């Protein structure tokens, strides 16, 4: 099932459990990133995800409109009511990856609904490093799309030995949204599909080894 946030009971359950032990450190971290006076807002992470127990960190570009409070769920969640979340949910199910082992995040965690600029990417990279420090069982980082890949590279410039020291497997893929496949070049489209398939197969193997 996808888009469960449309169900009032499911959405209420996520809200009521957003400070359960596994997810509380993540949402407390989110609170430190918020600055309402400065117009900087970050969605919390739904407790259906792994929190500090996550073995996989999934990184997209920036929070979409359906993560907004009052407009959407107020959470990062693969059950949100939008096409990218729906496709993400389908991919994890297709490759046998439990959402409970995944922590969703964004290269630029604040809501801007546009591509982040260079300085914003550097800021996002620093935050991403702090988030990873909260995840003791992390085994893989899934970078979905060029923005996520770029921010990861910026993080590695800041902390060159991070992945090696932590034994983190870095997996690059295309963005899960349909726009990532939009090209008139059929060969390029197939290449992008193949890249995504290889990434998820690799991620599935990592997931199986860690469970």
Order of helices and strands: HHEEEHEHEHHEH
What is the percentage of strand-forming residues? 5-15%
What fraction, in percent, of the residue positions are helical? 40-55%
The largest beta-sheet arranges its strands as 4-2-5-6
Main beta-sheet strand count, sense and barrel state: 4 strands, parallel
Tell me the CATH superfamily.
Uracil-DNA glycosylase-like domain
Uncertain ranges:
none
Using the 3D structure, state the CATH architecture.
Answer: 3-Layer(aba) Sandwich
Structural class: alpha/beta
- Could you tell me the radius of gyration in angstroms? 16 Å
Q: Count of helices?
A: 7
Strand elements, count: 6
> Kindly state the mean pLDDT as a whole number?
96
Measured distance between first and last alpha carbons: 23 Å
CATH topology-level fold name: Uracil-DNA Glycosylase, subunit E
Please tell me what the overall shape is.
globular
CATH class equals Alpha Beta
Structural domain count? 1
Assembly state (oligomeric): single chain
Q: Care to describe what's here?
A:
The protein is an alpha/beta fold. The protein has a single domain (4-209), classed as Uracil-DNA glycosylase-like domain (Uracil-DNA Glycosylase, subunit E). The protein has 7 helices and 6 strands, in the order H-H-E-E-E-H-E-H-E-H-H-E-H. The strands form 2 sheets. Strands 4-2-5-6 form a 4-stranded parallel β-sheet, with helices on both faces. A two-stranded parallel sheet has the order 1-3. The longest helix is centred in the C-terminal third of the chain and has 24 residues, at 186-209. It is globular. It starts with 7 loop residues before the first helix and ends with a helix. The model has no long low-confidence stretch (mean pLDDT 96).
């Amino acid at each position: 099932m996808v888009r469960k946030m449309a169900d009032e009971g499911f959405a209420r359950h996520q809200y009521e459990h957003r400070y359960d032990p596994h997810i509380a450190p993540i949402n407390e971290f989110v609170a430190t990133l918020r600055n309402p006076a400065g117009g900087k807002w970050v969605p919390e992470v739904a407790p259906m995800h792994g929190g500090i127990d996550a073995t996989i960190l999934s990184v997209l570009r920036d929070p979409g409109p359906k993560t907004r409070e009052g407009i959407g769920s107020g959470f990062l969640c693969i059950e949100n009511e939008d096409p990218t979340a729906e496709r993400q949910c389908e991919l994890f199910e297709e490759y046998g990856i439990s959402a409970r082992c995944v922590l969703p995040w964004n290269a630029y965690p604040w809501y801007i609904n546009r591509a982040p600029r260079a300085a914003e990417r550097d800021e996002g990279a620093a935050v991403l490093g702090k988030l990873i420090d909260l995840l003791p069982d992390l085994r893989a980082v899934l970078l979905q799309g060029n923005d996520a890949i770029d921010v990861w590279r910026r993080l590695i410039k800041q902390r060159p030995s991070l992945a090696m020291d932590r034994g983190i497997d870095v997996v690059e893929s295309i963005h899960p949204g349909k726009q990532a496949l939009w090209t008139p070049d059929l060969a390029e489209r197939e290449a992008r599909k193949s890249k995504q398939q290889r990434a998820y197969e690799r991620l599935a193997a990592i997931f199986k080894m860690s469970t």
